[in-house]
Design a protein that fits this description.
Elements: H1 2-21, H2 26-33, H3 37-48, H4 68-84, H5 94-107, H6 114-125, E1 130-133, E2 140-143, H7 154-162
Antiparallel strand pairs: 1-2
Helix pairs in contact: 1-2, 1-3, 2-3, 4-5, 4-6, 4-7
Protein name: Transcriptional activator FlhC
Organism: Candidatus Accumulibacter phosphatis
Keywords: Activator, Bacterial flagellum biogenesis, Cytoplasm, DNA-binding, Metal-binding, Transcription, Transcription regulation, Zinc
């Protein structure tokens, strides 16, 4: 049994390393992996050659929704995460975040910050923001009436802009 525990801890450490390499903020990595922040900060310095970011974390995904394109990227990431996740449908795990990030990268995630992606998943799952289906195109998207870019389907909006 202790060998299985050691393997779980090793995998947890590997996932934490990858998330830090991707620049996921240390407090979020700590939250997801339950690894103490001090070794995580040391790992950040080793990987990036600088101290990790300090300062207050955003309260939600809202500040990351800067335009329809970003809303579309965040929504597509949440949709992919939801499709891949076989968990309880509420919690976000470090391993699933990393797995979804890797798959999303293969289909094009340029310009998407992993921190924003984590907030998007967390906020949709905890119902801080809405998760709506567009009546027109049937795509799921993040809905937030207090953010002008998130009051309607970003995919339809971007399609109309191309015409």
């Amino acid at each position: 049994m202790s060998a299985l525990l050691a393997l779980d801890e090793l995998e947890n450490s590997r996932v934490a390393h990858e998330l830090i390499r991707l620049r996921l903020r240390v407090p979020i990595v700590h939250y997801l992996t339950n690894i103490h922040p001090k070794p995580l900060r040391m790992r950040w310095r080793q990987i990036h050659g600088e101290s990790p970011h300090n300062g207050k974390l955003p309260d939600s995904v809202r500040p990351f929704i800067t335009n329809p394109m970003m809303l579309a990227k965040l929504s597509s990431f949440v949709a992919l995460y939801n499709r891949l996740d076989e968990g309880d449908g509420r919690s976000v795990t470090a391993a699933m975040l990393l797995s979804a990030w890797e798959v999303h990268g293969r289909v094009g995630s340029a310009g998407l910050d992993i921190n924003a992606a984590w907030y998007a998943i967390r906020d949709v799952r905890s119902r801080i923001v809405g998760w709506e289906r567009c009546a027109r195109c049937q795509a799921m998207y993040i809905y937030e009436p207090n953010v002008s870019h998130a009051r309607s389907c970003p995919f339809c909006r971007l399609a109309r802009a191309r015409c």
